[in-house]
Design brief:
This protein is α/β, with parallel strands linked by helices. Helices cover 33% and strands 22% of the residues. α6 packs across α10 and α12 packs parallel to α13.
Length: 455
């Protein structure tokens, strides 16, 4: 189906990376563009010089309702009044990822889930690259999808990380391979219910046909239920569940099972990522590689060369027998649980931030089995103390520097201090990257000599 914006007035809501990329793409396609944001977007001046109207302040209903098309950045809620006014006026509303996907010539591999998206997206793209395939990675990770349109060709494979915020504004979005890693409560400060959050995730399968593929975590019952009504062919992955058509672990190898036949793909010894949940991400990427036709040798090279992403169980330092691990990307309760469970015992977890919903009591089993103490920060600190204070000592800290110092004091020799926030970062930090970098800096100060022996 052809799609054009030539001569149309398009309002882009949100001036972050996705909004700026969408505005640039729309200009290249002949649209008249207004970029609307509460604050002056960093990097908007070049667009202004090219004719984009930059509208600063609250989104105006008259501007939105008078447009031919609204394009939402992921951070802009789809239910705010200006957007609703546009809908009432009959103006189509789409997200940046929906807009750009309409102009891609290559096929998409869309990866979503509550946790593990960035790791799986990056490793999948590296497997394709090792196989000599023309591939790109982006979306919610790295470069917005809008930046990939100009270089897209029929043979390009676009590996796209997609969040619930991006999926909820899709219409025609149609991945060749759709991956659902897992599903647990998250972003309940934005989605009204878990069911609404799950419905947004389910849109990754909505436009698939029997010619497409769905790669689903067979260990995760909510994911299996969500994918049950999809029309695409299934190719699952699992660490524990019995997989007859997909990828699993047997003995010392990641293997492919296909109608009773088993073939070794990647030895577990090649995996350099810590934690059982990250091994699950490796299985997911390997499953995509199988569907896309990546040879086992290329899979193995990619896995051997991949040591993980910044802020995802990233080892920062060892100080006086205590390891420091940055998992700032653990922005929900399920992710924090996986962080804590990645270490046998002796964990001091730095947790807290802006609460996104869920129940910290869901961490009790993991904390009871693996942790010795918690340092609570941010707005969620009282909730963490109430839910977990009966299990382990909980100390509050007002800054990341204080949190790292307190965690080191509470840690035992041979233990680990892990930043596993279970919350978003926006009460104290710019984003999860800023939070992780401040954790690294605080650890660096400690390592520089403030204290080098445990008492």
């Amino acid at each position: 189906m052809s799609f054009t914006v030539q001569g149309q007035h398009v309002v882009v809501a949100g001036g972050g990376r996705s909004g700026l990329a969408a505005a640039d793409l729309l200009l290249s396609r002949g649209a008249r563009v207004t970029l609307s944001d509460v604050y002056e977007p960093e990097g908007a001046e070049p667009l202004r010089r090219r004719g984009v109207v930059v509208d600063i302040g609250p989104h105006r209903t008259d501007v939105f309702a008078g447009a031919d098309l609204i394009v939402l950045s992921p951070g802009v809620p789809a239910d705010q009044e200006a957007v609703e006014a546009a809908r009432r006026a009959g103006v189509p509303v789409v997200g940046e990822i929906e807009l750009s996907s309409r102009w891609l010539q290559g096929r998409m591999i869309a990866i979503t889930g509550t946790k593990g998206k960035s790791t799986t997206t990056t490793l999948t793209a590296r497997m394709l690259e090792e196989a000599g395939m023309d591939s790109t990675a982006g979306g919610n990770l790295g470069q917005p999808l809008s930046t990939q349109v100009a270089s897209s060709h029929p043979h390009t494979l676009h590996v796209v990380e997609v969040s619930s915020f991006q999926l909820e504004t899709t219409d025609r979005f149609h991945p060749w391979i759709a991956v659902l890693l897992n599903l647990s409560p998250d972003h309940l400060d934005r989605h009204p219910t878990f069911e609404a959050y799950a419905a947004a995730k389910a849109r990754v399968f909505a436009n698939q046909t029997p010619e497409d593929w769905a790669v689903v975590n067979a260990d995760d019952a909510p994911s299996m239920a969500l994918a049950r009504d999809g029309r695409a062919r299934r190719f699952d992955f699992a660490l524990d569940a019995d997989v007859s058509n997909g990828v699993t672990v047997k003995g010392g190898d990641i293997v492919r099972r296909d109608n009773g036949k088993t073939a070794a793909l990647v030895p577990l010894s090649a995996v350099r990522l810590p934690g059982r949940h990250l091994l699950g991400d490796v299985l997911a990427a390997t499953a995509v590689g199988c569907v896309a036709g990546v040879p086992a040798a290329a899979m193995r090279r990619a896995v051997e060369r991949f040591s993980g992403l910044p802020h995802a169980l990233e080892h920062v330092a060892d100080i006086a027998g205590v390891a420091f691990v940055n998992d700032s990307k653990a922005t929900n309760i399920a992710s924090a649980r996986r962080s804590i469970e990645s270490f046998p015992t002796g964990v001091v977890a730095i947790m807290g931030g802006k609460f996104k919903g869920g129940d910290f009591a869901d961490l009790r089993d993991a904390v009871g089995a693996h942790a010795t103490a918690i340092v609570a920060i941010g707005e969620a600190a009282p909730l963490i103390e109430t839910a977990l204070g009966a299990l382990v000592p909980v100390r509050r800290a007002a800054s990341m520097r204080d949190a790292v110092s307190a965690a080191f004091e509470m840690a035992r020799p041979g233990g680990v201090v892990v930043l596993a926030p279970a919350c978003s970062s926006f009460d104290m930090f710019r984003d999860y990257v800023d939070r992780g970098e401040q954790f690294r800096a605080a650890v660096g100060e400690l390592e520089a000599g403030k204290r080098t022996t445990k008492r």
